Every structure is written in structure tokens, then in C-alpha cells.
Amino acid sequence: MTDIVSADWLADNLDRLRVVDVRDGWEYDAMAHLPGAVSIPFDRFRTGSSDSEGMLPSRGEWASLLGAAGVGADSELVAYDDHHGVFAARFLVTAELLGHDPDKLHLLDGDFSSWQLDHPTSGDAVEVEERDYDVESPAETPLVDADRVAAASDDPDAVLVDTRDESEYATGHIPGAVLLDWRELVDDETRGLLPREGALSVLEDAGIVPERRVVLYCNTARRISHTYVVLRHLGFEDVEFYEGSLTEWEAQDRPLESG
Where is the Rhodanese domain (predicted)? Predict the structure, then answer.
């Protein structure tokens, strides 16, 4: 499963990993990057063409993008950004949803800043050999549709989770959803995940426990990507991912609650 790794772990394993920097291209060039990291900016995979499924890139676009960055189906990947990991998490979840082995996907805890504290960066251009990126669609997927989401609010064994901020939630949310701003699981000082017990306590306070089926949504599936990675890292097994999120929900003229 996709997990979260420390800068020290990454440093010890750097030679065998393909590290992906999802910051803007100018940041990669002007502000240095991890040694050997390739640049795949967030806006390159965030939106796809008309044949895309939801907000995911098409399989062909994704394969071309990763192959050009020297990523193969067998590559073990670590992704990072400079925004608490939310953009890097979206990259990793996209990879998982499109068929990359989730056991080979890792999020750098504490983003780029955690690496800079104790480890060297590089301004050198990284030369990669283009590879043929070919993975099969996964046999199982956490993706769910709007009907499945609507049913979750009436299911006592499920909890529907809105990962946006409090003001967005108050303006309008899917009926029955509980609020968990994704940033509540992040330590502002370290920019990384809260210590395990602290994170579990925050989740429990919102009614999010491993025994329940967890269904996640936000506006465009970016913020739920981070929460999804955190939950899987903490051992939650039944986590569902509403890729369409409120963009699709509102387009289908489905009801919202306010307050």
C-alpha cells in the first residue's frame, strides 16, 4: 500500500528509487531539488483530455508522461512537493488508480522542507532514459460513484468524510458528511503527518475509525488524495475514493446541506 516515509529513510534508499518532484517546473529548476529527482509538475497530470475518466489523466497520457520521466512499471517511486504533501499525494493516488503497484509508492513526510533540513539538494539537470510504461488496470479499485456516496450517509457502518475547510463545508456539503479538514492531520511545524496516536485521535474525534467504511470527497479529488494516503498508511483497510467529488455531485444536481 502507498505509505509515508521519512527523509532519513529516503536518503538510505535513494539509489534504488525513482524520486518524483511535482512542484512547478520553475521551482525545480530555480530552487534545487532532491538528487536524482525527476520533474513531473502537478499541472502536467492534473487534467486530461476529453477521454479521461473523471479528473484523472487518460491511461495513454499518463503512460507517456511517466515513461518520458524514466519511470517503468517496476519502478519504486517517492513523490514530494512543498505543500505538506497534498500535491505529491495526488500523484501517488493517480499512479495507484491507474495500476501502479501501491507497495511501490511512497510519500515523503514533511515535503521538500524536511529533506532540506539535513540532506543535500542539487541544481544539476537529471538525465533519464525514456522507458516504456505499461501497467494493467488494477483488479480492485477504491473508486466509487455518486450513488455509492449517497448511500454511505445512511449506512451505520460507513462514514462519509468531507476533507475541505470549515467554511467550504458550512457553505454546502453532501448530506450526512462529517468534516475533517485534511490539514488537521498535518503538523504545521514539521509539515509532516502528526505522530500516529495524535492522528488517530483526530480521526476518532470525527468518527473515523478503522472499523467503519470511510468514503472521502472534496472539490476536485486533490485534498482527499492526501487523506487517503494517510489513512492507508495508518492501517485503514476500507477506504473509498470519490474521484468526481463535489464537481461531479453538483453537476448532477444532487442535494447539499449547509451549516
Answer: 13-124, 154-258
In a shared domain, residues 107 and 8: yes
As for how many domains the chain has, the answer is 2
Inside any domain, residue 132: no
Bridge partners for 80 per DSSP: 21
- What confidence tens digit (pLDDT) does each residue in 54-105 have? 578 999 999 999 999 999 999 999 999 999 999 999 999 999 999 999 999 9
Q: Is residue 86 included in any domain, yes or no?
A: yes
Q: How many CA atoms lie within 13 A of 77 on its CB side?
A: 30
Phi, psi of 119 (to 5 degrees): -130, 150
CATH number at residue 183: 3.40.250.10
Between 223-233 and 86-97, two packed helices, what is the crossing angle to 10 degrees?
Answer: 80
- Please give the Cα distance from 31 to 117 (Å, whole number): 14
Residue 240 per-residue DSSP state: E
User: If we measure between CA atoms, which residue out of 234, 66, 218, 50 comes closest to residue 149?
Assistant: 218
Q: How confident is the model over 227-241, as pLDDT tens digits?
A: 999 999 999 999 999
Which cell numbers in the block locate residue 201?
485521535
Domain that holds residue 100: 3-118
